[in-house]
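Hi support team,

I submitted a single chain yesterday and got back a structure, but I'm not sure I'm reading the token output correctly. Could someone confirm the output below corresponds to the sequence I sent? I've pasted both exactly as they appear in my results page.

Thanks,
R.
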Amino acid sequence: MEDICESLNLAPCACLKTDYPVSFAIFALARSHRAKAASMLADIGLFPGQEILLMQLAESDGKPQKTLCESIGLDHSTVAKSVARLERDGLIERRKCPSDGRISQVHLTRKGREITDRITRVWAELERQTVEGLTAEERAQLMATAKKIMPQMAPVSCAP
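Hi R., thanks for writing in. Yes, this is the structure output for that exact sequence:
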């Protein structure tokens, strides 16, 4: 684990990496993966997480903000900040729901649709770099292990 701490420029954390090696390994991997994604997304003007929101809309445009929160698994305030920033940047727009004016739906703009192709390329490259050096069996084992752990993690509440 020392090499993980060193490669991430973390202060020595002997008790965490020795007493909780699995949790620390997940933390270190998630942190480095997010940093790599952040660097790649910055090249197209996005922050981590914004691309997920945009791709959700590309899949099904016009979702209420609450639905976005639930589908992404982020809390309401995080999604609200992302929506505001993406709207400010001209990638999305909010419109009143035609059948219920109390509900605001989030839609991609033309500029937002255009950036989804770039997001797909970034994620393809991130995936390539992430699994580089892993065999097909190791990738399958990683996915199986992650799927086994995920249900044990508490879901994020989307309540405002």
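A quick pointer for reading it: The CA atoms of residues 13 and 64 lie 42 Å apart. Let us know if anything else looks off.

Best,
Support desk
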